[in-house]
Prior knowledge:
This protein has 198 residues and is an alpha/beta fold. It has a single domain (2-187), classed as Rossmann fold, CATH 3.40.50.170. The chain has six helices and seven strands; from the N terminus they run βαβαβαβαβαββα. It has a seven-stranded mixed β-sheet, sandwiched between helices. The protein is globular, with a radius of gyration of 16 Å. The chain starts with a strand and ends in an 11-residue tail after the last helix.
Amino acid sequence: MTRIVVLISGRGSNMQAIVKACQSGDINATVVSVISNRPDAAGLTFAKENHIHTAVCDHTEFANRDDFDGELAKLIKQAEPDWIVLAGFIRILGAELVQQFVGRMINIHPSLLPKYPGLNTHERALAAHDDEHGASVHFVTAELDAGPVIEQVSVPILEGDTPDSLAARVLAKEHGLLVKAVKRCVTGDVQFTPSTAV
């Protein structure tokens, strides 16, 4: 059975979608560990209730990013995953850590990449008067949000949209998008190469 580690920072709604898809057999895999950089992340409770191993790598307890990355890499390796999924994990990973897992680490990002890497994507899409916005699942590489895109989904930007209303509409599409992308990774339908694209 394919083994998945999920990294979260908050409520973990995308992580929950993956777990449920694995439990139902939609994804032929199992989530073996959920790791958070925040000890109070609500998603950890869901994982424990579903008898999934959890771990916390609290970034505030480390003197620098290299030390944090080293501990995080150790926790990931202990779970012996085939795939690592960043599902609302709000930390930038260093190049050395990423290189250890390149080709089997994916991330969901709330924009239609390559547009709007980084933070505040909904505000930036509205400020640019875009007609559409969305989310992307991509392979993680050393350059922030610049890895090959696996799947994307778009939503129209409506008159009167606020960052919150737009974010809510994008999130509603993220769960299905991430499940679809993880399923493709697990089945081998998509594999990492520098030229991988949707």
